[in-house]
Amino acid sequence: FLASLARDGDFETITTMVIRMVVIVAVIAGSRKASLWLYETTLRALFPTAYIAVSDPSYLWVMAWMAQDPSAQKQITDFQLSTEEWRQVRKSSASALRRSAETNKGGTVQNSSPSVGEQNASWAEGDIIGQIIPTYRYSIRLRHEGKYLWVKRRMSSFARSRLRTVDHIQIRTLFWQKDVLKRFLVAAHQSYFAKEDRELLIFNANRIVAKWQSPVSRPVRPWSSVILPDNMKEDLITDIGKFLSDKEVQWYAARGIPHRRGYLFHGTPGSGKTTLATAIASKLRLDIYVVNPSQRGMDDAKLSKLFRDCPARSVILIEDIDCIFPRNRGRNNVTLDGSDGEPTSSTTEGFDDIPNEPPVTPMFGGKHDLAPSTVTLSGLLNAIDGVSSQEGCILIASTNHPERLDPALSRAGRFDVHLAFFHASRAQARALFLHFYPLEDF
């Protein structure tokens, strides 16, 4: 048709038709974009949404919440079993897969009224604990504080780059209750890190990246089990309690002083330094963050980030701090004497059984193995009380040889209180014996 018009020389008609086609295409494209914009705007207005990437720790909070919610479990038909992270959770939940003590040969739980987790237990051998979580695209309705939320796992181009897909979840609610999103995430966080009355959470640093691993739990150390001379124990807990009080926090803030306090425990090996640190955390219900500056792969930047990521009202523990910088080496760099890259002296006194990241197997002659620590004295000092250092934490370091510490490290301001530990006296030994073997047991 256009060709015939061109042969007839009717260019005016051709121009008019082309303009009309361009206008129609533009109108269609504009209408499509406008309708899409209107749809997205309306959707955002009516259904406030939170997006959480799988790499964010809060992803685990929500997954654990759904694994513990009986209502959510009833909605899940096709599911994914996750055991990797669940092994780090302190206690099994209603949806944890576990083998009951009473199982038949087929592994079916023999219980007249089993819980959600028991209904799903089907292993005849061994103990398996895991999370039942929904598969992708299925929306799970949750009820929190009497309000509804819809959670959906998605695999899409969540990042700017469309070359890789990112696993994430979206949490939606209704526009008149948008505040419930934040309250739900707070509740999920509190539930994930909820502690039993007789439970102590211990965090260790990841060996590959500068972040804290999921915590492991240990029974609390009874305060009465720590026997120290005179009023040493009571004076110490009073001092720490005063430091953590709101009045003290306001006093520091009003004067522009960083809210930090450090304690250096020094003395003979096996005299109770780590035990006291554990008892303090148990008594005050604080979490322990174990820092090992001499571990492989550690450097000043990672150490500083680990310190910054420690939440307020927690205990930062550095054991055998004198072993970080051997005396026969320069103080500017950490060099390790062991043939395997670890210090020749023991760097742990009470947390040897805490699992850490699995060791990295060297490939092609150790090419991909972690390098020895390069933490410097300056880096350690800045991590403890630098400009960007964390505040509100209790820093506890232990050493068997305080004379080996650099004065810049042991001075007041970094370690304000020095406590000397000795072998148990006769009175202490008697008190310890009576604690573990009370007369009423005989």
Automatic annotation (TrEMBL):
Gene3D superfamilies per the UniProt record, alphabetical: P-loop containing nucleotide triphosphate hydrolases
Topology in the lipid bilayer: Single-pass membrane protein
Ranges where the BCS1 N-terminal domain occurs: 22-226
Main location: mitochondrion
SUPFAM superfamilies: P-loop containing nucleoside triphosphate hydrolases
Compositionally biased region (Polar residues): 103-119, 334-349
AAA+ ATPase domain segment(s): 259-425
UniProt-annotated location(s): Mitochondrion inner membrane
Region (Disordered): 97-119, 334-356
Statement: the UniProt record of this protein carries the keyword Mitochondrion: yes
GO MF annotations, alphabetized: ATP binding; ATP hydrolysis activity
Pfam families named among the record's database cross-references: AAA (PF00004), BCS1_N (PF08740)
InterPro entries in the record: AAA+_ATPase, ATPase_AAA_core, BCS1_N, Mitochondrial_chaperone_BCS1, P-loop_NTPase
Alphabetic keyword roster: Hydrolase, Membrane, Mitochondrion, Mitochondrion inner membrane
Stored PANTHER family: BCS1 AAA-TYPE ATPASE
Protein name: p-loop containing nucleoside triphosphate hydrolase protein
Organism this protein belongs to: Naematelia encephala
